[in-house]
UniProtKB/TrEMBL annotation:
Keywords: DNA-binding, Transcription, Transcription regulation. The lineage of its organism: Bacteria, Bacillati, Actinomycetota, Actinomycetes, Kitasatosporales. Pfam families: HTH_1 (PF00126), LysR_substrate (PF03466). CDD domains: PBP2_LTTR_like_6. Belongs to the LysR transcriptional regulatory family. PANTHER family: LYSR SUBSTRATE-BINDING, TRANSCRIPTIONAL DUAL REGULATOR HCAR-RELATED. The keyword DNA-binding applies. One of its GO terms (molecular function) is DNA binding. This is LysR family transcriptional regulator.
């Protein structure tokens, strides 16, 4: 009989690439991960891993088993959701991941609704970069999370993760002067080709969005500052340190010296959780609370 815990380790190895990364993510030692995978190979009766020096890759049989592991883990998540549904209302810890602007604009009002309607729930919020959410969900560190994607930077479907759209918000060019009203998006951005730019830090979706939007307008931005906090970004713009592209939720207030020009670009926020957990009562409860907490100036989104 194949052990589910070992199947999870194999799935994580297929996603993370190294035994060390799996061990770090799941709080194991590398030797413990190796031992568990070796035991799984004996249970399977066929080689699942190929070892070349320090590198480990999956064999064709290993990849096949990972596909089955995804289905098994999703079905177990579904079983847990159905069992939880037999209890009297959502209860217990609920770990919610979110990016900072969503925490302020949507998570806080959603928590108020959750506490009022489901006093047995114990929501716990963790701010996390959307790029790390899938790993945290699969590892069980989060139960549900808000993630985002930008025009020019679509998200890639993650194994073991289910998503549903929540809302969309406009993007703005922040500068010291306002471009002509007749300027098209590409010419608005192109008009800043010689300006210094303020972007998020490399590796974030926001950074990639700015770079790609500028490249689509025909130039690569000359980056002077790399800052993730939008309030600080706007302060830098006000201090004539450069221009930036910011989302609506990143500008609840802005310095008087900053001019905002709306662009036909959007950031979309999505609710993510483990595959199979859609009907878990706690996931349903937080999803309803989040949908009721979307600011009126944003565009609500639903599944197609």
């Amino acid at each position: 009989m194949l052990d589910v815990r070992r199947l999870r380790l194999l799935r994580e190895l297929s996603l993370r690439g190294t035994i060390a990364a799996v061990a770090e993510a799941l709080a194991f030692t590398p030797s413990a991960v190796s031992q568990q995978l070796a035991t799984l190979e004996r249970e399977a009766g066929v080689p699942l891993l190929e070892r070349t020096g320090r590198r480990v890759t999956l064999t064709p049989a290993g990849h096949t088993l990972v596909g089955h592991a995804e289905a098994v883990l999703a079905r177990l998540e579904q079983a847990a959701a159905e069992l939880a549904d037999t209890r009297r209302g959502p209860a217990g810890p609920l770990r919610i991941g979110a990016f900072p602007t969503a925490t302020r604009a949507m998570i806080l009002p959603a928590l108020t609704s959750l506490v009022d309607r489901h006093p047995g729930l114990e929501p716990m919020v963790v701010e996390i970069d959307p790029a790390r959410v899938a790993d945290a969900l699969r590892a069980g560190d989060l139960d549900v999370a808000l993630v985002h994607e930008y025009d020019f930077v679509p998200t890639v479907a993650e194994p073991g993760i289910a998503t549903s759209p929540l809302c969309a918000e406009p993007m703005y060019l922040a500068g010291r002067t306002r471009p002509p009203e007749s300027a098209r998006t590409d010419s608005v951005l192109a008009g800043c080709r010689n300006s210094p730019w303020i972007t998020a830090t490399p590796g974030t979706l926001c950074h990639a969005m700015t770079i790609r939007a500028c490249q689509a307008a025909g130039f690569t931005p000359r980056v002077r500052h790399q800052v993730d906090d939008f309030a600080t970004v706007l302060s830098l713009v006000a201090a004539a340190q450069g221009v930036a592209v910011v989302p609506h939720l990143g500008i609840p207030t802005h310095p008087p010296a900053v001019s905002l020009t709306r662009l036909p670009l959007r950031r979309r926020t999505t609710i993510a959780h483990r595959e199979g957990a859609t009907h878990h009562p706690a996931v349903r409860a937080v999803t309803r609370a989040l949908r009721s907490s979307v600011p009126t100036e944003l565009t609500p989104l639903t599944d197609p």
